[in-house]
Amino acid sequence: MSGLTKKIVALAGVSAFVAGNAVAAELTVVSWGGAYTKSQVEAYHKPWMAQSGHSIISEDYGGGIAEIKAQVESGNVTWDVVDVELSDAIRACDEGLLEEIDHSSLPAAPDGTPAVDDFLPGTLHDCAVANIVWSSVYVYDSSKVRNWNAPKTMADFFNTDAYPGKRGMRKSPKVTMEFALIADGVPVSEVYDVLGTEEGIERAFAKLDTIKDDVIWWEAGAQPPQLLADGEVIFTTAWNGRVFNAVAAEDQSFEMVWDGQIYDLDLWVIPKGSKNVEAALDFVRFSTATEQLANQASWISYGPARASSVPLIGTYHDNPAIKMADHMPTAPGNFANALQNDFEFWADNQDDLNERFNAWLAQ
Amino acid sequence: MDAAQPITAADGTPLKKKLAQAMFRSKLRATGLVVPLLAFVLASFVFPIIALMWQGVYNDTFERLMPNLTEELRVWDGVSEPTEDMYAMLVADLRQNRADKTIGKVASRVNQELAGTRSLFTSTARKAKKLEPPYKESVIKTKKKWGELKVWQAMKLTNQSLTPGFYATSLDAVQTVDQGFVMKEDKRQIYTKLFVRTLMISGSVMLLCLLLGYPVAYLLATLPLRYSNLLMIMVLLPFWTSLLVRTTAWIAILQSQGVVNDLLVWIGITGDDSRFSLIYNMTGTIIAMTHILLPFMILPLYSVMKTIPPSYMRAARSLGATPTRAFIKVYMPQTVPGIGAGGLLVFILAIGYYITPALVGGQDGQLISNMIAYHMQKSLNWSLAAALGGLLLGGVLVLYWAYDRIIGIDNMKLG
Description:
The structure holds two protein chains of two kinds.
Chain A: H1 3-21, E1 26-31, H2 34-52, E2 55-60, H3 66-74, E3 81-85, H4 86-94, H5 115-118, E4 124-125, E5 128-141, H6 154-157, E6 167-170, H7 173-183, H8 191-195, H9 198-209, E7 215-218, H10 223-229, E8 235-239, H11 240-250, E9 254-269, H12 277-287, H13 290-296, E10 303-304, E11 315-316, E12 319-323, E13 338-340, H14 343-362
Parallel strand pairs in A: 1-2, 1-3, 6-7, 6-8, 9-13
Antiparallel strand pairs in A: 3-9, 4-5, 5-8, 5-9, 5-10, 11-12
Helix pairs in contact in A: 2-13, 4-14, 7-9
Chain B: H1 15-57, H2 61-65, H3 67-75, H4 84-100, H5 103-113, H6 118-127, H7 135-142, H8 149-158, H9 165-170, E1 173-176, E2 180-183, H10 191-222, H11 225-240, H12 243-254, H13 259-267, H14 282-306, H15 310-318, H16 323-351, H17 355-360, H18 368-377, H19 382-406
Antiparallel strand pairs in B: 1-2
Helix pairs in contact in B: 1-19, 3-4, 4-6, 5-6, 10-11, 10-14, 10-16, 14-16, 15-16, 16-19, 18-19
């Protein structure tokens, strides 16, 4: 029995004892649905329920903090743990909508490294603990015979001469505008500096203008793989885990183009006034432990937020031939030209750019 | 008997008084029956609408959370250099908001007025505790932007709790401190365009419903019972089906790899690489909305047509009118109340539609209601959503009034 397993068994014993004394709680955990929620149910919810004696109701939502705000402000909080994007976590925390999470209470790595040092830089916040790193990329279907060379760069996505046909993009300025600038030749390190200027915004819209008539806009994460499979589009931007799932679980022959990928975090937060704060905190601690994060990675190709989880990443849960490490956004081969989403830029400019983006769409 | 003597009831009280008492009791009973409904309508309809409309012109986030700075801003003229006192009050309020965890609310509110100020507030609030006088210097040192006049002007504007600013935004104008209201540049205008588009799409849907629904209603009213019953079921069956099911069915039918396009390619009307875009655009929105709203046109038309005796048409024919002339001169005028009712119903429902355009509208098939939903759910700018909703409500009331003046609301027949 390895040291790690011993520790986990011991930990499980203690928690079971504690839980045995407490009244079993029913936790509502809210996430993004589809393959992503499934990976969380398998890696987090089921083991936690078995260990703590509490139960979990899993709900889906479409992102944003509107529901959390409505629940907290009306004093009727029914969600206990929510999976949110970084810019939303920061904003909700600033507005006092979330419980604070004490970082020192998070479990240390198996080798004893404290959690604050084990989590990747920028993944721990006052009210939020990251669980995964995910990425926006674009995809094509390699099973459809077409007379063009396989696309390699972000510029190819915008090249309608070499690659004629419809393209799917997320109906949001976030990521879309960065993609446009990267395709227009802005180095990833300068994207947010350029986008912070009026000329930069004009430049991004000008680039988007070149494909505007060819774009089908999607809103839910499950849509792009569907659009691609139906042949509605030749390319589509998508979240890398959803694409991986279509490839691994549904035998689609989708190929991702990692050039110019934009990665971001998903974090657990606890709405202020949750009726099960203690159980919710326990769930957050449990699910962001080294082993659970590594386990999740065997269900979907999102990178764990802890350094100590990375060496533990194994193979796809029902196909040992697929090495998950190769499919992570952070895998060396994929990470060559990557950009981290700048949450502060978006917290500041989201409202304004959304408005301009909507105006641009309506023209 | 003396004529001046009042008539009395058996117990001696004047009959008039007795009658009034009896009437009062029955009135009370009638009122008692109506009260629950009245209370329900007030509590669940009138009150929330008034509350929401109020949000469209009143937003006291800044005034409530930044009380000290508010007083300073009141006396500031809006163009001169901000004073040390103003900076001192700013720091005092930021500290308080940091402690109460409300700084995000203030930051969001000012950010609505001037983009890019959210992090200015949140980051300076984090450092506010350590700031020392002179505050003007130390605040500007944390972020240069605090020295810019436009940040202070934005705060002066958000500082007015009772504000026309949200209605101005709804009409694509901006409120400024020194120049009153200014229209936004053309490519940033969105709401006025969407209002016009909403009216146009609703109008087209109404006309299409009338064109398609009129013959169906006529058949329903004139066919023998066994046929018309079958037809009625065909009209009602989709009416009873979920809106979402019908909308997604249209996606399956109209998409570029869908039934209609496959059929057109098979017949040879279009090539495989030049399939028609029938969905995710305005065409898709109009087709799906017309289908969904059709029963609202057919049913009022049918109920009116059912009451028109067939003998009128026969009389017109026997007096020498051609079938067309008899139909136009005799039959159609009698269906006007149905046309009015169906048209108004379809138009008003169409104006507020949002699920269907959200699903099939793509980029040029979105309506103003999609924008309202966006501000309610995503940007959380409820005041702007309220202002847009207020304008929409006002528009509907104006149309209703115009309808009443032109056709007369008494002529409307819903069934």
